[in-house]
Amino acid sequence: MKANMGVADKVIRIAIAFLIAGLYYSDKISGITATILLIFAGIFIVTSFMSFCPLYLPFGISTRKK
């Protein structure tokens, strides 16, 4: 796996994940919507720490500076 995520991309993903978690814990979202969004938040966190997004690969996208 070659890193394909830049710093800004990682920061934005982590911020979105924390926002989703905050909405969940303050009971602003619930039910199936909350479950789906929390799964996405988890994926955002994992891909941010790995600096690799599998969805970028088939499209040849890279936000990492060369």
Q: Residue share in helices? A: 55-70%
Number of strands: 0
Q: How would a crystallographer describe the biggest sheet?
A: none
Which H/E pattern describes the elements?
HH
N-to-C CA distance: 16 Å
> What's the alpha carbon Rg, rounded to whole Å?
13 Å
SSE class: mainly alpha
* Envelope shape: elongated
SS field, number of helical segments: 2
Low-pLDDT segments: none
Task: Give the assembly state of these chains.
Answer: single chain
Strand content: under 5%
Report the average pLDDT across residues: 95
Structure description:
The protein is mostly helical and 66 residues long. It has a domain at 7-49. The chain is built from 2 helices and no strands. Helix 1 (7-25) packs antiparallel against helix 2. The chain is elongated.
Please provide a brief summary of the model.
The protein has a domain at 7-49. Helices cover 59% and strands 0% of the residues.
Which descriptors apply to this entry?
66 residues; mainly alpha; 2 helices; elongated
Give a topology summary:
Blueprint lengths: L6 H19 L5 H20 L16
Helix pairs in contact: 1-2
